[in-house]
Amino acid sequence: MLLAITLVTGLLSWGGSRLWNSVGTLPGVPTAAPIVLAIIAVVLAATAITLRARLRAQRERVPGAKGVDPLSAARSVVLGQASALVAALVTGVYGGMGVFLAACGTPSRAGTSRW
From 35, 46, 53, 97, which residue has the greatest number of CB atoms within 10 Å? Predict the structure, then answer.
């Protein structure tokens, strides 16, 4: 499912890049975009590691281990699923633009490409 989303988004991004480049120049990537995505990834990794450790301690019946609130666990799962969908979309968009730029060279001469 995520691979299909990535591929479809990549194809649409590649086509959109070709169209956009034919009428002007491609937009740049904001500097903050990769930084924000990296921060979100770190928060998700920390949440997953903490939840996994608490579940393992609960499963092995370690004395004094904190239990996991079911609502909190469900929220973590939903956040992980939503983040996976966003990651598939972002990968497709950047991948499609990257393939376009790699095939055409620089955006300024992309209009003279063989594509």
Answer: 97
